[in-house]
Amino acid sequence: MLEAKLEQADILKKVVDAIKDLVQDCNFDCNDSGIALQAMDNSHVALVSMMLKAEAFSPYRCDRNIALGVNLTSLTKVLRAANSTDQLTLKAEDAPDSLSLTFENGQDRFSEYDLKLMDIDQEHLGIPDTDYAATITLPSNEFRRICVDLSAMSESVTIEANKDGVAASRFHTMRKMALCALLALDASGDSSDLMRWTTAVEALRALNLSTSSSFERLKTILSEQECK
């Protein structure tokens, strides 16, 4: 039997929220060490590996290894019913067909949900030890904010780290779009050409200021972390 209690339901909510856009269905592997998850997205580009150790729960009980096949969209809907400070208790039998989630605020509110489990045939991948050329540490909230800023500029970026530990980003998609936009402009050979090209250049200049601002922000944060 599995019984695990989190003092704050927000912990699991943040974990699920971080991976639900990458993975739709996955197994939560429960054992006496904690609750682990490993899954790949449908395109096999991103690998998610997560572990909530037994020490994060109080109490924590897992009598035998249990795999909980969960649809993360359904789990997200259930977790929305909990306040961030609610206590969350997870329960499942040794051969479960459902997962019980209980929310309580320790005073006058108590709610319980049963989530139907799935039979997911999922391969467990070994993650080899890797020697990385660079290691960069920065606050996760700041990195998330930077990624949101950059996503408005391009679907993909290249982040480079030099010997000083400062990352740089190059916006390949936006550069191609800018070049195509300039090549697509009509040229009639009269004064109207100047207006069209001036408008295009001003738009590209504004785009450059925006991307430069995001880069400088990332550069400053990483430089501050390097000095610590």
Automatic annotation (TrEMBL):
PROSITE patterns: PCNA_1 (PS01251), PCNA_2 (PS00293)
Domain (Myosin-binding) ranges: 168-227
Domain Proliferating cell nuclear antigen PCNA C-terminal: 126-167
Protein's cellular compartments: Endomembrane system; Nucleus
GO biological process: leading strand elongation; mismatch repair; regulation of DNA replication; translesion synthesis
A GO MF label: DNA binding
Keyword flag Thylakoid: no
Gene3D superfamilies listed in its UniProt record: DNA Polymerase III, subunit A, domain 2 (3.10.150.10)
Domain of life: Eukaryota
UniProt keyword DNA-binding present: yes
Cellular component GO terms held in the UniProt record: endomembrane system; PCNA complex
Pfam families: PCNA_C, PCNA_N, Vezatin
Domain Proliferating cell nuclear antigen PCNA N-terminal: 1-123
Cited function: This protein is an auxiliary protein of DNA polymerase delta and is involved in the control of eukaryotic DNA replication by increasing the polymerase's processivity during elongation of the leading strand.
Name this protein carries in UniProt: DNA sliding clamp PCNA
Species in which this protein is naturally found: Verticillium longisporum
Lineage of producing organism: Eukaryota, Fungi, Dikarya, Ascomycota, Pezizomycotina
